[in-house]
């Protein structure tokens, strides 16, 4: 019988992990260490598992805030921008837009074509607070209660306040009701005391304000982040062997063992060696998922290292994650309505995280004030964390963003250090959306200002003079092509701002100076860009416009040369712009007035070549195609939208395609998609200003210079005094003048020529008016103490100060004027007293 082969000297790694199933028959050495004292000694016998962090990008590096540099365990990969645990974050971009803006102290509602459909002022609303409502009242129950007394209230107008008693045993709660009806508060207050269904409920009118509109010119503070600890439990694993207990502890801490897919921390073992105690050593597993049980714990530990006993604590609270989310959401809905659905993080972190966007900023701030650090409704020992998130958005041309991306990246580290998150959304219709957000409003505002500076670009100047020429409005001109060559050589973006008549340069700061230098040289060498080049505008009659559309403009452009003539279809009236010499202008004028048929087609229209802008009839730059199929330059589309303010008709943005015959009204959503964020907001503001200017019998601006607040006018029989909420100036809503304390008729008389003549006559005759009742008085003789014959007021004739008694008036005359106005005889004081 042959001897057994010698066993190799290599150690069995499965035995070291406690998973060798061959026992004594194993061909590898089973080294049993006397004591394992540290993770380092244990790791000598265990194959180091692959670090799972190597597959996860560093989220702090994505924010520019990683402090570990190359030693970070997570890869620093340039993954998709805006990556975060809020995996559903993109959904908020699809939130319902209400198309309302707060402008001039009013709430403006916009419709298609960017036309103003409604203007609401604070005076159009009224609000009431109901106290001593039953605990648990909801907006639905309040609406039902008011319906029983004949008042119909929309659900969105009700806000439930937290219980009035902050301690246990609260007996009631409150509700604020705000309605677009100035008489609502008066009606409710008259019905509450007499209705049996509202017995015990107290109602009081409260100040009203218009809901805050949403705009991209300001930061947005309507989103809150909520988080709370997941339900957890603790497990105690009992072992009879201290070495095995240490192995299990170390393997949990090395993340080899997991419970329900989650990494857990292990402590211990604690205990004392005792051969009579089979459970001498205890390892504690902390923060286990609430769903963990003995089976799930035992499943992750091999048979060789199984504990002899497992004991579990009760979960910190019994609710599931979904149930806890529902209860927190219920708390938030009692404060205000949401915009879109709440977003719950799918991360398996120790805290459940949810973000909610409220319709109104006031509700978001109220949620933070009332719920932050409040006890959880399902776990009185746990606390809810609620933080207000401030954000600012920019939508810019994708080419512009690409040119300044390196400058934005240079700020990422500083923003990340302030816990600011920068997101960039995928380009859409030629635009890229950038959002900066954080929990500290001042930091967000600072980052917003830095982004505004970057997106404003640098205006190209030659000394103090802005570089611009009319030839740059033509997309097919040689001057425009020269600009494109500068862009390509230096890797920058040059925006031709036709409205402001300037060139704005976007790119790295190091290149902007070189761009300006090359542009100055270009303006010196290009005859069309030189100061000697003149600009002539030829306005077209309807017949001349038709001639130009039917081939005349193309023939004119061919005769004059590239870049000399520009066709402006958007302006009113339509025009052709000549950028050249006096001879070019005379030739163009002769062709237009003579109506020469240069290349005139047989049809009554000329189809634009594919790729040409319908507004300027040149190749579209940064093209935008509308839903009706017409192509515009991005700049021409902006001009089309902004030109509506200067027309005599109602502000309504229509398509100028098919030689301005399309006339399709653009939906607001399409306008928002095709314009940059700043331009879109500027268009809405221009529409509002146009609406106020065209309706002077309904709305007026506050007369204080640069105030900009709007008030509603009234008929003379309903005249009232409007006090501006911004500058506190008072104005009559009927005659639009400041005459507080007087009627309109009295004011008109006071300011009339007749009143002025009367004042001159009274002054000549020595008459004065009583300061209290305006009764005219004449002093013929006697002292300077006068008693008004109309109201009996005691008056100082010299300064017209009034007194309650004659004694006070005489004391005043002696003290202030050195006498009572006559020479006193001996004993006069005794007689007067």
Describe the protein in words:
This protein is an alpha+beta fold and 833 residues long. It is 30% helix and 22% strand. The strands form 12 sheets. Strands 8, 13, 14, 15, 16, 17 and 18 form a 7-stranded antiparallel beta sheet that branches. The radius of gyration is 40 Å and the shape is flat. It starts with 12 loop residues before the first helix and ends with a helix.
Derived from helix and strand composition plus strand pairing, the structural class reads alpha+beta
Largest sheet: 7 strands, antiparallel
Terminal residue distance: 151 Å
State the low-pLDDT regions, or none.
1-9, 32-56, 61-65, 77-94, 164-169, 596-604
Mean pLDDT across the residues is 76
Rg computed from alpha carbons, rounded to a whole number of angstroms: 40 Å
What is the global morphology?
Answer: flat
Share of β-strand residues = 15-25%
Count all strands and give the number.
37
- Helical amount: 25-40%
* Count of DSSP H/I helices: 23
Question: SSE layout and pairings?
Answer:
Blueprint: H1 13-16, H2 39-43, H3 59-63, E1 100-103, E2 106-110, E3 116-120, E4 126-134, H4 139-147, E5 158-160, E6 172-179, H5 184-191, E7 202-206, E8 220-229, E9 232-239, H6 242-253, E10 265-271, E11 281-289, H7 294-300, E12 309-312, H8 321-333, E13 343-344, E14 351-357, H9 361-371, E15 374-376, E16 379-397, H10 398-417, E17 421-428, E18 431-438, H11 441-456, E19 458-459, E20 461-462, E21 465-466, H12 478-490, E22 493-497, E23 502-506, H13 509-525, E24 534-539, H14 542-560, E25 565-568, E26 575-580, H15 582-594, E27 624-625, E28 631-632, H16 634-642, H17 657-660, H18 668-674, H19 677-694, E29 699-701, E30 710-712, E31 721-723, E32 730-732, H20 744-750, H21 753-765, E33 767-769, E34 776-778, E35 785-787, E36 794-796, E37 802-803, H22 806-817, H23 828-832
Antiparallel strand pairs: 1-2, 2-3, 4-6, 4-7, 5-6, 8-14, 8-16, 9-11, 9-12, 10-11, 13-14, 15-16, 16-18, 17-18, 19-23, 20-21, 22-23, 24-26, 25-26, 27-28, 29-30, 31-32, 33-34, 35-36, 36-37
Helix pairs in contact: 10-11, 12-13, 14-15
